[in-house]
Amino acid sequence: MASTSELACVYSALILHDDDVAITADKIETLVKAAKINVEPFWPGLFAKALQGHNIADLILSAGAPGAGGAVAAAPAAGGEAKAEEKKEEAKKEESEEESDDDMGFGLFD
């Protein structure tokens, strides 16, 4: 779970981004002090360096987006239901074949 210091820096960075202001350690520290939150001195610089050169809007928009594998698995192709039924039927056939092979008159550890 994030500490108060981390959250204060995240919110400060979001405020600066929302106001189209460059995100720097000094500006994050100014906002944190204005909110009367005690933050360890390394956090503002750490966040400013981490966000430097990144498009904050892209980071925000991609935060909850699934990976390519999740999107493909979540949206089956047309006719996916028929394929699923075929797979179930195949699985049933395999199970019935396995059952008939199981009783061969001897056990593995006999």
From TrEMBL:
* GO CC terms in record: cytosolic large ribosomal subunit
* Bias-annotated ranges (Basic and acidic residues): 82-95
Decide whether keyword Ribonucleoprotein is in the record.
Answer: yes
> Among the record's GO biological process terms, what is one?
translational elongation
Q: Which residues form a coiled coil?
A: none
Please indicate which superkingdom the organism of origin belongs to: Eukaryota
Q: Return the protein name.
A: Large ribosomal subunit protein P1
Source organism of this protein record: Nematostella vectensis (Starlet sea anemone)
